[in-house]
Specification:
With about 325 residues, this protein is α/β, with parallel strands linked by helices. Helices cover about 40% and strands about 20% of the residues. It has helices at about 10-25, 40-55, 140-150, 160-170, 180-195, 200-205, 210-220, 240-245, 255-260, 290-295, 315-330; strands at about 30-35, 60, 80, 90-95, 105, 115-120, 130-135, 225, 230-235, 265-270, 275-285, 300, 305-310. The relative contact order is 0.11. It binds manganese (II) ion (MN).
């Protein structure tokens, strides 16, 4: 068993209740996560799916896996989308608020009326699941799935430990972000001991298509510094993607490139879709990316957050600049 250390007093009890509900369920388990799934989304879903299947359960993840994460599942392991809800299904929603229909992907939630089990670490989670384990102090949902796997009594194998470690690895920026707690490092050590392939996943995650570098040139040429250098922004639009031969799903990592700019406290990458604009925000910790995202209609964490603004780029940019100014004032940086 993994040592459970949490600010949530009922953490271990809720984990056991969710495990019990899953073990008692006879029908298919449907596992879903958020739109634009990241390493924590796929790692959490696949970790739970493999644990349940090892216990003889019928469990399937429905997810549109982005290109850079396609090395994670075995062929046929993850289905792109649930066509219709099977009889006696039980829904598990991981790494996202189960009530946020704009964010949960992979199936039509409005056609499902059964119980929902939710495991998530977002501070903006509204806690409306039938059974919810929500702990914003956890660095990754995969870390919570690790505790759930223990509660299920599944035997740890390299195939099970690897996706769970992937979720922890990616949500901590490969153990570089401020959420890399002793708990994270101990969990990672346990998972490596259980056969998780850390070097392999880092090698797979670091590989880039040639179009990455062509788009990087475009992103760098759009970089701007605001608020006297405290804020760095960049923008990607359809024409830039076309010139680089890249797709929208390739854009996600660039915010982590610009956030390296010395002297900045907040980085924002704008995805300009014409009629709407998506913001990816990263903070070094002094300002809250979450506060800026919430002011723009989104959510997330202090260190990493995002929002979709239903407006063209200029309008979304002005909204972000106002929200950023308010946040910089709140923490006394301007
Ligand atoms: Mn996560």
């Amino acid at each position: 068993m993994t040592a459970v250390n949490s600010s949530e007093p009922r953490y271990a009890e809720l984990t056991a209740q969710i495990a019990r509900r899953l073990l008692d369920h006879d029908g298919p388990v449907v596992i879903l996560s958020h739109v634009e799934p990241d390493g924590d989304a796929i790692g959490s879903c696949l970790g739970l799916q493999r644990a349940l299947r090892s216990l003889g359960k019928d469990a399937t993840t429905y997810m549109d896996v982005p290109r850079y994460l396609r090395f994670v599942p075995e062929p046929g392991e993850i289905e792109p989308r649930l066509a219709s809800w099977p009889e006696n299904a039980l829904l598990v929603v991981l790494d996202v608020d189960n009530n946020d229909v704009r964010r949960v992907d992979g199936a039509d939630l409005s056609a499902y009326a059964g119980d929902v089990l939710n495991v998530d670490h977002h501070g903006t989670n509204r806690r409306v699941a039938t059974l919810g384990l929500v702990d914003p102090t956890k660095a990754a949902t995969a870390l919570m799935v690790m505790h759930l796997v223990d509660a299920l009594g599944a035997a740890w194998t390299p195939e099970l430990a690897t996706p769970v470690l992937l979720g922890i690895n990616t949500d901590t920026g490969s153990f570089r972000f401020s959420n890399t707690s002793p708990e994270v490092l101990r969990a990672a050590a346990d998972l490596v001991e259980r056969g998780a392939r850390l070097a392999w996943m880092n090698e797979m995650l670091s590989q880039q298509q040639p179009s990455y570098y062509a788009l990087l040139r475009e992103v760098l040429s759009s970089m701007e510094f605001l608020e006297g250098g405290l804020v760095v922004v960049a923008r990607v639009d359809e024409a830039m993607l076309a010139r680089a031969g890249a797709a929208w799903e390739d854009v996600e990592s660039y915010v982590n490139v610009i956030r390296g700019a010395e002297g900045t406290e907040l980085a924002c990458l704008f995805k300009d879709f014409g009629d709407r604009t998506k913001l990816s925000l990263r903070s070094r910790g002094r300002v809250s990316a979450q506060n800026v995202a919430v002011a723009c209609g989104g959510g997330g964490h202090v260190a990493a957050a995002g929002a979709t603004v239903t407006a063209p780029y200029a309008e979304a940019r002005a909204l972000m600049e106002r929200a950023t100014r308010a946040e910089l004032e709140r923490v006394g940086l301007v």
